[in-house]
């Protein structure tokens, strides 16, 4: 029997961001290698993409691999990169069929050349799609993104292209990797942790946060809809007084 939807009539978020946490703990609790947790987590990715598309969420940003994750044991990093290759090769056709537009943010230079090529192919093939915008954050760090933006603007000022008096929040936001992507309305973090972990630091200034104890490999449509229903119950005032 299909579980009843937990969603109300209030507007859904336009942009949902997710910190997919708990793969390793899921595997350890079952006496399995961490790689199995990551493999099971890929199933949750598929499920959430389909649910977001069905519900009309326009943007879904997934924190796939952080700039700090490079510090993990080399064997685990290699396994993660292998899973990434497999995902990009196997899922592209299905994403394209669903009308999903795929793109990546983060420091691609640290990724192997073949993975960079797979990303380019995926982005180019899905560029004209008008369904869900799927953004995968790879080798990504929020602080690094802000620093890079500040450096670029400093170079523009130095060259005389930009007057420092014209720098404001809107101009700064347009220099970020997410320039053409609306800020997240909702950020979900799984596994019980309650921190941003250097993810979309500028963009989440007014984002609603939902933390769930569910480990990412167990995160399915029901958990996703529950997080969306929590968002629907929030009063978003953006610093002003509510009605």
TrEMBL record:
<feature type="binding site">
    <location>
        <position position="38"/>
    </location>
    <ligand>
        <name>substrate</name>
    </ligand>
</feature>
<feature type="binding site">
    <location>
        <position position="21"/>
    </location>
    <ligand>
        <name>Mg(2+)</name>
    </ligand>
</feature>
<feature type="binding site">
    <location>
        <begin position="195"/>
        <end position="197"/>
    </location>
    <ligand>
        <name>substrate</name>
    </ligand>
</feature>
<feature type="binding site">
    <location>
        <position position="26"/>
    </location>
    <ligand>
        <name>substrate</name>
    </ligand>
</feature>
<dbReference type="GO" id="GO:0016094">
    <property type="term" value="P:polyprenol biosynthetic process"/>
</dbReference>
<dbReference type="GO" id="GO:0005829">
    <property type="term" value="C:cytosol"/>
</dbReference>
<protein>
    <recommendedName>
        <fullName>Isoprenyl transferase</fullName>
        <ecNumber>2.5.1.-</ecNumber>
    </recommendedName>
</protein>
<feature type="binding site">
    <location>
        <position position="189"/>
    </location>
    <ligand>
        <name>substrate</name>
    </ligand>
</feature>
<feature type="binding site">
    <location>
        <begin position="22"/>
        <end position="25"/>
    </location>
    <ligand>
        <name>substrate</name>
    </ligand>
</feature>
<feature type="binding site">
    <location>
        <position position="208"/>
    </location>
    <ligand>
        <name>Mg(2+)</name>
    </ligand>
</feature>
<comment type="function">
    <text>Catalyzes the condensation of isopentenyl diphosphate (IPP) with allylic pyrophosphates generating different type of terpenoids.</text>
</comment>
<feature type="binding site">
    <location>
        <position position="34"/>
    </location>
    <ligand>
        <name>substrate</name>
    </ligand>
</feature>
<feature type="active site" description="Proton acceptor">
    <location>
        <position position="69"/>
    </location>
</feature>
<dbReference type="InterPro" id="IPR001441">
    <property type="entry name" value="UPP_synth-like"/>
</dbReference>
<feature type="active site">
    <location>
        <position position="21"/>
    </location>
</feature>
<keyword id="KW-0479">Metal-binding</keyword>
<dbReference type="GO" id="GO:0000287">
    <property type="term" value="F:magnesium ion binding"/>
</dbReference>
<comment type="similarity">
    <text>Belongs to the UPP synthase family.</text>
</comment>
<feature type="binding site">
    <location>
        <begin position="66"/>
        <end position="68"/>
    </location>
    <ligand>
        <name>substrate</name>
    </ligand>
</feature>
<dbReference type="Pfam" id="PF01255">
    <property type="entry name" value="Prenyltransf"/>
</dbReference>
<dbReference type="InterPro" id="IPR036424">
    <property type="entry name" value="UPP_synth-like_sf"/>
</dbReference>
<comment type="subunit">
    <text>Homodimer.</text>
</comment>
<feature type="binding site">
    <location>
        <position position="72"/>
    </location>
    <ligand>
        <name>substrate</name>
    </ligand>
</feature>
<dbReference type="GO" id="GO:0008834">
    <property type="term" value="F:ditrans,polycis-undecaprenyl-diphosphate synthase [(2E,6E)-farnesyl-diphosphate specific] activity"/>
</dbReference>
<keyword id="KW-0808">Transferase</keyword>
<dbReference type="InterPro" id="IPR018520">
    <property type="entry name" value="UPP_synth-like_CS"/>
</dbReference>
<feature type="binding site">
    <location>
        <position position="70"/>
    </location>
    <ligand>
        <name>substrate</name>
    </ligand>
</feature>
<keyword id="KW-0460">Magnesium</keyword>
